[in-house]
Amino acid sequence: MTELYAIYGASGCGRSLMPVAREQLARLKIKAEIVFIDDGLKAPAMVNGHRALNYDDFKQIAAENKFVLIAIANGKIREMLANKLEQDQIALWSIKANNTVTMDDVSVGAGAALSPFVIITSNIKIGKCFHANLYSYVEHDCVIGDYVTFAPGVKCNGNIHIEDHAYIGTGAVIKQGTPDKPLVIGKGAVIGMGAVVTKNVPAGVTVVGNPARILEKK
Length: 218
Fold this sequence. Notes:
- This is PglD N-terminal domain-containing protein.
- By secondary structure, the protein is an alpha/beta fold.
- The protein has helices at residues 12-27, 55-60, 75-87, and strands at residues 3-8, 33-37, 45-47, 50-53, 65-70, 91-92, 95-96, 101-102, 106-108, 113-114, 119-120, 124-126, 131-132, 137-138, 143-144, 149-150, 155-156, 160-162, 167-168, 173-174, 183-185, 190-191, 196-197, 206-208, 213-214.
- It has 2 domains: 3-93, Rossmann fold; 96-207, UDP N-Acetylglucosamine Acyltransferase, domain 1 (3 Solenoid), CATH 2.160.10.
- The strands form 4 sheets. Strands 7-10-13-16-19-22-24-25 form an 8-stranded mixed beta sheet, covered by helices on one side.
- Strand 1, helix 1 and strand 2 form a beta-alpha-beta unit.
- It is globular and about 50 Å long.
- The N and C termini lie far apart (57 Å).
């Protein structure tokens, strides 16, 4: 059976995840090629020792099974590409680093990217195409929606609900909620770099600072 693996996106996010992907295949003793997909390419190229080609060329490669990790930080674009892959009957691929820690009763949807030094503790439910960057953690009893992005060093404490398409910036700290009153980050909200979130964040807003407050549009 021939298998082909790909990372969709050859920019910084994709290039940083490629070694994690290689490491995972080696760990699982899977001998298969991993390529980059980059829709900006007119012709195939080489990126960090891997073939890079556009999506149309990728589809033309003969393989019994194809698996794709979407390495794009923007959750809306991840969703669009995931829908395209589903229409073309190409499976979402999940990767996690060798030193990623996951504990008890953890459910993570398809298409996740868990970078080195990520920790996901116990009793946690995470949707599809989740990105957790370097040194991020998710503490107990959290619920995270689809297409959520954690930049490096995010501290997501216990009893937090994060809705679809939220983006949590580098070094942000989210205060722990309680079982009867979880702290909620609304759909599509953006948490700024280094923000300290101490209360619920409405859908679609950007919050910054310590304590985090809504960034008003001028």
